[in-house]
Every structure is written in structure tokens, then in C-alpha cells.
Amino acid sequence: MEVSSYREDSDATGSYRIRRYPGLTGFGRQRDDVYCTSGDLRMTQSISVTINGKPYKHDVEPRLLLVHYLREVAGLTGTHIGCETSLCGACTVEVNGRAIKSCTMFAVQADGANILTVEGLAEAGGKLHRIQEGFWNEHGLQCGFCTPGMLMVSKQILDRNPSPSEIKIREGLDGNLCRCTGYQHIVKAVQAAAKAGV
């Protein structure tokens, strides 16, 4: 392919060369390739979030997933990394009151958000949340790998419907996988938490 132009440029991260190809490629856009010739091309963006009631501010790369930010930058390792393809739900956290799979969201998209992770479920003084009590009493976990995500999605189920039927509980858990329990004890745990909240 013939190169139509080169453009040299630099910024605080270093010098780089942009190579532009003639004509248009997919989606009607010009094709550009950027090559670093010196320095570091990694860009960062400052984000501020509130996690479990505590403010955090960091400079992060735009490509950093929220799950990696929580674990590697904020140091909150309760959120687990399972599939990284949004299938298992082990990374579920609450962002602005909604349960989301944190492997499907960039940290920069959470800028300004209020985030709740499994570490923030327990009340002040260490008293367990009723969801945690339900899982404890009804044996809703075995290996525990899926448990943080299951706890967070179970909280959302009860936030939306304080007295859900078994069918509604199973529908709410549908996006989270467990390979150990067969789900029956998890369903019982959510039912027990619902009764505890009445």
C-alpha cells in the first residue's frame, strides 16, 4: 500500500510519527498508523471515584478495565477476575446503584461514580450484610470464587424487589455462574436474606 504522507509530532510523552495511507478504509475513515520514535506514548487520564464510601483519585491508562483498577490500583481484591468476557459475573460490583460486570467497563468510564464492592457490604463494626448472613447460614458457597459477584447481584435483586419469588431470584442470578453449588443453596440464601429484611 502506498504511503501518502508522514507527519512528525511530539508531546510530553515523547516524539512520534504518524503515517497516513491514501484513500479510505472501513467505516469511511482514513487509516493512520502511529509509531513511537522516542519517549513513552502511554497516555493517562485522572479519575476520581468513591469506593465503599472512600474517595480515590488516580491517573490511569484509558484501556484499564474497572476490575483491574479495583484490584491492582485501589488494592480491593475481593472482586474476582473470572472470564474477562462478561460471561461469569465473578467481577460484579455496584456502580451508582446498578450491578455491573466490572470487566466490561473501563476505569475512566467510572470517573465520578460511586462504587460498592464486596468489601463494602458489611456494616460499620463488621456486622455482616443480610445477604452475607444468608450465604453463611444457607451454605451458599463452596469454593467461594463466584461468591463476591453472587453477593453483589443478590443485593441488587433484593434492592429491586424485597420479596422476590424463586423464579425471579433465578432470573436475577442468570448472568452469574457457579460451578460448585448447583445454585439451590444460593437461591435459599437470597430467600433467607429477603425474610431477614422484612
Give an account of the 3D structure.
The protein is an alpha+beta fold. It folds into three domains: 5-39, no CATH class; 43-120, Roll (Ubiquitin-like (UB roll)), CATH 3.10.20; 124-198, [2Fe-2S]-binding domain (DNA polymerase, domain 1). 25% of the residues lie in helices and 28% in strands. It is built from five helices and eight strands. It has helices at 66-73, 130-137, 147-160, 166-172, 184-196; strands spanning 5-11, 14-25, 29-39, 45-51, 54-60, 92-95, 98-101, 114-116. The strands form two sheets. Strands 5-4-8-6-7 form a five-stranded mixed sheet, with helices on both faces. It has a three-stranded antiparallel sheet with strand order 1-2-3, with no helix packed on it. Strand 4 (45-51) and strand 5 form a beta hairpin. Helix 2 packs across helix 5 (184-196) and helix 3 (147-160) crosses helix 5 (184-196). The protein is globular and about 65 Å long.
Helix content bin: 25-40%
- For CATH, the homologous superfamily of the largest domain is named as Beta-grasp domain
Point out poorly predicted stretches: 23-36
Count of separate DSSP helical elements = 5
The total number of structural domains is 3
For this structure, the CATH topology of the largest domain is Ubiquitin-like (UB roll)
Shape: globular
Order of helices and strands: EEEEEHEEEHHHH
CATH uppermost class of the largest domain = Alpha Beta
What's the arrangement of strands in the largest beta sheet? 5-4-8-6-7
Quote the distance from N terminus to C terminus: 69 Å
Query: How many strands in all?
Result: 8
Strand content: 25-35%
